[in-house]
Amino acid sequence: xxxxxxxxxxxxxxxxxxxxxxxxxxxxxxxxxxxxxxxxxxxxxxxxxxxxxxxxxxxxxxxxxxxxxxxxxxxxxxxxxxxxxxxxxxxxxxxxxxxxxxxxxxxxxxxxxxxxxxxxxxxxxxxx
Length: 128
Fold this sequence. Notes:
5% strand, 128 residues
């Protein structure tokens, strides 16, 4: 998600500080923020500007007591051990988590793939 914000909203505004600030300000001040797939992004790529964006976003929201929900394929302990974030940013994520809930369910992509396989098999066998 941080990659998405960085590359799709911030990078196109490069050189336009007011546009960059507007995008970050919205993410920092929105009443409720959901960040999907934390830990999947490569925030260490490039010059580290995504590290700065991530830290500033998390830190600002925590200080303002704005709720943020994170989803991840990692448990918090695994995220801390293997994440791409700088230590101070990773500690902000961990420190802002009031609880962790692991969902014991099948991966959505696997479910969709299985459904598509069944549809294709029905099509091939003429059982439509």
